[in-house]
Amino acid sequence: MDPGSMPKASWPVPRAVGRNFLYANQIDQAMEDPAFPPMVKKALCVLFIALGAILYLTWGIVYGAWNPFSNDYIGIYAVMVTLIGIGGIGLLILRLEEEEGQV
User: 25, 51, 71, 79: which sits with the fewest CB atoms below 10 Å from its CB?
Assistant: First the structure.
């Protein structure tokens, strides 16, 4: 049987989840706003900041490279800035979400 002659599925298409079937729009609604605790978000942000700081300190101790503007080690500093930046921006967003909820 060639693929062009196969019957098309009608919308909404059920998707199997365990023994139950959920429709695609039900799955989208359930995943729209997952219950993700703020403490977990904060812990992940702090973890990113800590990883960036540990990376900087470890690299500096092992290689004696404390100058972030040196061309030799610019890649590792880019990773460090990215980790710290993601953590910092995440904490700022989390603080804004908390302030918005209290208003």
Answer: 71
